[in-house]
Amino acid sequence: QGIYPTITSSFRTAEDQQDILESKYEHYQKIGYSDKKAKAYAEEWVAMPGTSEHELGLCVDIASGDSRVTNQEVWDWLAKNSYKYGFIERYTAEKQDITGIIPEEWHYRYVGKKAAEEMHENDLCLEEYLQKAS
Ligand SMILES: [Zn+2]
Questions:
Q1: What's the gap in Å between 14 CA and the centre of ligand 1?
Q2: Range of the domain at 71
Q3: What is the pLDDT of residues 111-124, one digit of tens each?
Q4: Rounded distance, CA 131 to CA 134, Å?
């Protein structure tokens, strides 16, 4: 279909997550933010170690792996088709109030085909799906 999805990040240890958080913090300091602001922005973008879904090993970040297709084209395709393979776009803009996480079009979580299909058909995020199931 002319789409070349490539995994850019998968399983991370809590130490990996700490390194990512610190890099982001240093980035914001370097571009001139105060320590307090740099820390706040870094924590807005990067999950605290011990809370990232990447530490579960159930998530992947996906982008374009080919110059013939943009990241946005890959993400649009994934948003429409990933459920067929058991994956969900975990953090959408529409569900930000429920997930508490800023939209991440590249972040996909494996939930299995049955759950992914039900969530897709009923427009449910994982939190809503689990609430309904319990
Ligand atoms: Zn991710």
A1: 14
A2: 5-133
A3: 999 999 999 999 99
A4: 5
